[in-house]
Design goal:
Elements (H helix, E strand, L loop, with lengths): L3 H10 L16 E4 L2 E5 L12 H14 L7 H5 L2 H14 L3 E5 L2 H12 L5 E5 L4 H10 L2 E5 L4 H9 L6 E6 L11 H10 L3 E5 L14 H4 L9 E5 L9 E5 L1 H10 L1 H4 L6 H16 L2 H19 L11 E7 L1 H13 L2 E2 L2 E2 L9 E6 L6 H14 L1
Parallel strand pairs: 2-11, 4-5, 4-6, 6-7, 7-8
Antiparallel strand pairs: 1-2, 3-9, 8-9, 10-13, 12-13
Helix pairs in contact: 2-12, 4-12, 5-6, 13-15
């Protein structure tokens, strides 16, 4: 058997050990962390909706109507009118005929890829794809080919080498650790040339990008013919929980029949679906949240450049500061913590060796004063 104690010690010695923090209170830019008040820059609640009063009321009203649990999977008796209404509204939001709810984004990605691909097929994935996409490829038992990050020429070469096989191209929309946006127009062109489907997980793009918060596809003015399989999460900019896939009538019906993480999982609580319906409305109507985010991002990048900090190429709320060394990244994160600023140090295996970073993320609830405080503190501790 594996020596667990020795493995844990190795992780500690290599500064790769992870510890949970206990949050007392709702999500927000100000958090009570292990009993200490912190200014947080490490949440995916990009639009600041997770503690919105209308969201809380929608969940309370939903619990009063449907109770707490859904009781069973969607295909048994767990599919409520709240779930169904949310699916219809997400389909309309994405401009597609149907949408299908999953309990988590991880389950959505594993279920979709494994349902569409199998032995003898090929799955082509960007090298920096999220773990859920990579695990979906492995679960499918298809042959997985990874191409260099954002390199459509490399992808085209790999596709040409397997011209007679069933294939699926899979990418993140916004890459969670780098914050950059996938070159979707170019990926779409390559996929169309080879007559195969493109699947995009836009977990970090929905709500943030596009005039109406429609994410990467809206940002690039793409449609269902360009991106046939569009995945989103409800736990980031939506401020809620769960995930969905949007696409054609046939795609959704097929996934209902074949996606095991959908079939064999208890449905989301209906009250959560009600909260997500409210967040979908807020996301589309309160455009000031996206506008404010862009103002904060530009302000931060300008200040960080003046300090000589090494930023990555990102126009999204994910603004990583590249440090390199694991120990140094941890030390800076700890110094920030001592100044009541919470930013996680991201280390391997989440990112490649030698690219440890501070993953700074912004919310529409942050203020310019918050950003200035962060910049001033970074000047002191880096």
């Amino acid at each position: 058997m594996k020596d667990l104690a020795a493995e844990l010690k190795r992780l500690q010695d290599e500064h790769l050990y992870r510890r949970r923090r206990i949050i007392d209170g709702p999500q927000g830019v100000h958090l009570n962390v292990n009993g200490q008040q912190m200014l947080s820059f490490c949440s995916n609640d990009y639009l600041g909706l997770a503690n919105h009063p209308e969201m809380a009321k929608a969940m309370q009203d939903g619990a009063a109507r449907w109770g707490v649990g859904s009781g069973a999977s969607h295909l048994v008796n767990g599919h409520s009118s709240a779930h169904h209404a949310l699916e219809e509204e997400l389909a309309a939001f994405t401009g597609r005929p149907r949408a299908l709810l999953f309990s988590t984004g991880y389950m959505a990605n594993m279920g979709i890829i494994a349902a569409l691909c199998g032995r003898g097929d090929f799955v082509f994935e960007d090298r920096l794809n999220h773990a859920s996409l990579l695990d979906g490829g492995l679960l499918s038992q298809a042959r997985m080919q990874r191409f260099s990050h954002g390199d459509t020429d490399a992808l085209a070469q790999k596709l040409a080498a397997h011209a007679d096989s069933e294939k699926l191209v899979v990418t993140d929309g916004v890459f969670s650790m780098d914050g950059d946006i996938a070159p979707l127009p170019e990926l779409t062109a390559v996929a169309k040339q080879h007559k195969i489907w493109l699947m995009v997980d836009d977990a970090h793009g929905f709500g943030v990008l596009g005039k109406n918060g429609g994410g990467c596809v809206e940002h690039f003015a793409l449609g269902m013919n360009d991106v046939p399989i569009l995945v989103g999460t409800l736990g980031k900019a939506f401020g809620s929980f769960g995930a969905f896939v949007a696409g054609s009538e046939e795609l959704i019906e097929y996934l209902i029949q074949k996606a095991r993480p959908y079939i064999y999982t208890t449905a989301l609580p209906p009250a959560v679906a009600e909260a997500s319906r409210t967040s979908l409305k807020l996301l589309q109507t309160e455009n000031w949240r996206r506008e404010k985010l862009q103002t904060l991002i530009k302000h931060f990048r300008h200040g960080a450049n003046e300090l000589g900090l090494q930023l990555m190429d990102s126009e999204t709320p994910i603004q990583p500061l590249l440090i390199g060394d694991n120990n140094k990244a941890m030390a800076i994160s700890e110094k920030l913590l001592q100044q009541d600023i919470l930013i996680s140090a991201i280390r391997p295996p989440t990112v490649a060796e030698g690219t440890a970073r501070l993953r700074v993320t912004f919310s529409a609830e942050h203020t310019e004063e918050n950003v200035n405080r962060l910049l001033n503190t970074l000047e002191q501790v880096t």
